[in-house]
Design brief:
Radius of gyration: 15 Å
Low-confidence stretches: none
Structural class: mainly alpha
Shape: globular
Distance between the termini: 33 Å
Mean pLDDT: 80
Helix content: 55-70%
Largest sheet: none
Number of helices: 7
Number of strands: 0
């Protein structure tokens, strides 16, 4: 049980810092996140690029990379690894729903709505809320 809890905590921190640092600060291949994803969803959370696909192509690539990079953990900490994989897919599903259904985002993921529609320099967690004043 402790591996599962630690896997979720680790995944939450990983998600937050991958979103905050590479996607919002590095530029290069990560610039599309700000130039496209944030621009499309700044008004009402809707990102029409999600209409034709289940998951965004860059998103699914990063999800696969995260799962593969952590794969050696399965040999020692199987539950920790599967918690990471579960968290990744939960993120993919909830992130897509939040960008195809504004009402869902406003009701169930207010912090993510705030990040896109009010202040993109706050609330970098997709699955977790950042408590800011």
């Amino acid at each position: 049980m402790i591996e599962i809890i630690l896997g979720f905590l680790y995944s939450s921190f990983l998600e937050y810092y991958l979103h905050k640092i590479p996607l919002h600060n590095w530029g290069g291949v990560f610039r599309d996140h700000i130039l496209i994803h944030h621009k499309l969803s700044a008004k009402d959370m809707k990102d029409n690029e999600y209409n034709d696909v289940i998951f965004g192509k860059n998103e699914i690539v990063v999800a696969i990379i995260v799962c593969l990079l952590h794969l050696p953990l399965i040999l020692i900490y199987k539950n920790f690894y599967f918690s990471i994989v579960f968290y990744v897919f939960l993120y993919l599903i909830l992130h897509r729903i939040s960008h195809t259904n504004s009402n869902f985002a406003k009701s169930w993921m207010q912090w993510h709505y705030y990040h896109h529609c009010i202040n993109s320099k706050k609330n970098f967690g997709i699955r977790s809320e950042e408590h800011t004043s």
